Amino acid sequence: MSKARYSMGNKAVTALQYPSDMEAITRVVIDPSKDSNYEEFRVLRSNISDRIDDKKTKNGEEIKSTVRRRKGESGDKTTVDKLAQDLDKMKMSKKEEKANQIGNPLNWFGVLVPPCLRSAQKDFEKAINICVEMASLQQEIHWLIDNFRSTRSQAECNLDNNELADVTTEKLQENEENTTTPQEIGCNT
Amino acid sequence: MAAPIPHGRAVKPGRLLAVVGDEDTCTGFLLGGVGEVNAKRQKNFFVVRKDSTLGEIEEAFKHFLGRNDIAIIMINQHIADEIRHLIDKHRESIPAVLEIPSKNQPYDPSKDSILKRAKGMFSAEDFR
What we know:
Chain A is mostly helical. Chain A has helices spanning about 1-10, 50-55, 55-70, 75-105, 115-175, and strands spanning about 25-30, 40-45. Chain B has 5 helices and 4 strands.
């Protein structure tokens, strides 16, 4: 990113380039873990062209109607169909290209961006995947800490009860006339 | 509970990643596609500048904690040090708080809130 800033200029790669309206293409899904009671995170990257399809379904309908008209014509249907399909593909690829231009944060910094900025974007995408993995591991650590503490306090409680039972048994043996029942201390776990 | 849906926008699956960091950290993660400005003009990122006050950072962090559409908050460790009291107080699992290094300050595991909690579990008595 610093290299891109060096080649494009100091003010070309800053927070000033952020648009006022943006939509996240990288999100996180929370999944319950299979083995335990903690949650795991998973990266969800939305298809940029799908987002544009939501906004521009009218264009999609126009493309479909073109295909229908062409199929209805007489003559060599296979050639006409092929032409129609090629035309649709061209339209879709142009549409996807436009969608990519609109949805891709790289385009906040200009139409032609240096390759180092593209590689910075790829590196940050990898970093996001790693961060989400780390967050999942952190959740596991949280769960293990809580689990360890509750298990330890239960174990200490049981230990106290056993010690008390031993002391009581000794007293019973010393004093044969008295009978007492061991009482368990209530444990807060 | 889902956030109120603005008229005309479809509900997006998943939650967001929030970023509290210096300009390069925020720009980088926004390049990765995590940035969003919702219908209420609220951002899921906060750029910490030299003139940012502690109050502004705290308010941004608390705002992200309060939102129900954010799953992970990524924060530069040197900024996390300034609001350590708020991070240590946060005990819920969602949103998860992840401390990350910045360009100038490498990551120090001894300062990380989560690792400090894990370290504090064991004392000398446990190893008798």
